[in-house]
Hints:
The complex is a heterodimer of chains A (114) and B (112). Chain A has no helices and 11 strands. Chain A has strands at residues 5-7, 10-13, 19-24, 31-38, 42-50, 53-57, 64-68, 74-78, 87-94, 104-105, 109-113. In chain A, a hairpin with a 5-residue loop joins strand 7 and strand 8. Chain A is globular and about 40 Å long. Chain B is mainly β and 112 residues long. Chain B has strands at residues 4-7, 10-14, 19-25, 32-37, 43-49, 55-58, 61-66, 71-76, 85-92, 100-102, 106-111. In chain B, strands 2, 4, 5, 9, 10 and 11 form a 6-stranded mixed beta sheet that branches. In chain B, strands 1-3-8-7-6 form a 5-stranded antiparallel beta sheet, with no helix packed on it. Chain B is globular and about 45 Å long. The mean pLDDT of chain B is 94. Chains A and B meet through strand 4, strand 5, strand 9 and strand 10 of A and strand 5, strand 9 and strand 10 of B.
Amino acid sequence: KAGVTQTPRYLIKTRGQQVTLSCSPISGHRSVSWYQQTPGQGLQFLFEYFSETQRNKGNFPGRFSGRQFSNSRSEMNVSTLELGDSALYLCASSLNGNSGNTIYFGEGSWLTVV
Amino acid sequence: ELKVEQNPLFLSMQEGKNYTIYCNYSTTSDRLYWYRQDPGKSLESLFVLLSNGAVKQEGRLMASLDTKARLSTLHITAAVHDLSATYFCAVDIETSGSRLTFGEGTQLTVNP
């Protein structure tokens, strides 16, 4: 059974540009969440999607956005990139995101902003 | 605001020894997750604890949850080098969907 797949794995962007990251959840999983990991702030929740609707949102500026498609695949977008956006972006999926579901993480997308 | 604190943050131990990592959280929850992360890698799910008194074991690792004390522990028995990694606990308090709040992580090094 394939795990959570994220693309691209590594990317370098310039300040002011925008980036789109993609995530394919485990087959049958309908909840997709995104997290940012940095050495300074640790792991922080960005947002969660279920059935194409954003169900929960973390404390990030509006430059960070996401969406989920009918096949449960998800994308997140960061516009007007800042140096501080350099991080590992992790996508996670679970059956329905409710209590007791194991939450599985993908390998992540390493974003460097220069 | 939910706060999750782990201690210790750094742990260096010898093979064969036992030790415990502690995870304290500030808001009532009965959903506690433990993950392992190797350098440059993603998070690997270890345990999901869903009720007061829950105890789960896998190999040399055992996790428990005390919801009254808002405390979870990850106990390592007879450590081996392969257990060297960073361990995170995470708490979920959402009533609909999920939102994990992570601790800072405990960087474990097991020395031969």
